[in-house]
Model the fold of this input.
Amino acid sequence: MISELTEITEEPEALPFRGWIFFDEDCGFCRDLALRFERAFAERRFYLEPLQRKWVQERLDLTREQALEEMRVLTADGQIFGGVDAVVFLARQLWWATPFAALARFASVHSLLDRGYRWIAAHRSCAINRKTSPSLPARTRWLGLIVLLPFALAIKAFLPAWAFMWIMAFAIFFGCKWLTLGIAASRNQPVCPFRATAYLFAWPGMDATRFLSSDPAPHFPRSMALKNVLAAIVRILIGTLLLFAFARHAQDPILAGWIGMVGIILILHFGLFSLVSAGWRVLRVDAPPIMNAPLRSTSVAEFWGRRWNGAFNDLALGLVFRPMARRAGVIAGTLSTFAVSGLVHEMAISLPAGAGYGLPTGYFLVQGLAVLAQRKTVILRGRLFTILVVAGPAFWLFHPPFVRQVIVPFMQAIGAL
Done:
């Protein structure tokens, strides 16, 4: 193999060799990644070899144990990168990953990435498509909500309204994530520490059963992944312009706040979350985007049930609608689901604002009634009716006190206004 390396480097005109990428072939996670990106890096004249090869260990001057601690990159001019430095170096070779490489230039970001890489390296044996025994006691499933919600309420008096909004939103989010993780464990589904941690902190969805499944998701074509990434980047750019450029020119604070909220939703839900989804699907993890072209909805039920914020839909269906529908019927199940959604939004919207109580709940009850009405009357179905029902009373959901006392101060705090 050393002779092959020499032959390649001696003929740069015939084959402009740029380096080797060394990986652990005994690690399913590492092997899957190598197979996924082998073609992309081969086009850039980087070639993959397992760290288990004796010539690799000799060339790197490492023992077998040392070599398997982290991935390595050996460039044609003799530079060696390991661990997160190797990841960052390779990211610079892919145009769509250059923003990641740019962020890694900051010492704090690099340090965080390094700790994350080393944690993954230590737990990678079960990272992708490996089964392990359940490790999360099902009886602790409600612990997240029991601990995080009172904590958020306890520190409310010490925070500005916009900061409390984010703290409460994160408390609800992570409490529900822990709840769904516990439900998956209670079904004797294998829980891998790596995948469980990724589910909690690196995926906004709420369907733990799908995300934790050891069965690989359907192949996600490279062309489709690239299309999704480009679309997400465009949405992030548009959202950034709305939030930091257009909103400041609005004369009315309420209008400025609404423009900013649209920008935030584009950046997060339609942008960053879509990028995360594409990344997991490339790794054959079942993680569909939580936003599914909501403007294509032809009914209110389709909007809330299939296209808008699939994360909360997964949670509401499993914890509220199905149990209530079995006990009291579909009508009670539907209205209960929307009522619970209203109460959740009261905690994240009305409570931080200290006003507007009842308006978010009223908004969602209207949505529930519209869903029931559309099931009975064909005339009420259609895209126009759906838009009117969903968008018309939206000022009940994001009511003026919330916009004025929470969103506008938040935009001021981040320099958007």
About this structure: The chain is about 65% helix and 5% strand. Confidence is low (pLDDT under 50) at residues 1-13, 127-135. The two ends are 60 Å apart (CA to CA). The CA atoms of residues 322 and 333 lie 7 Å apart.
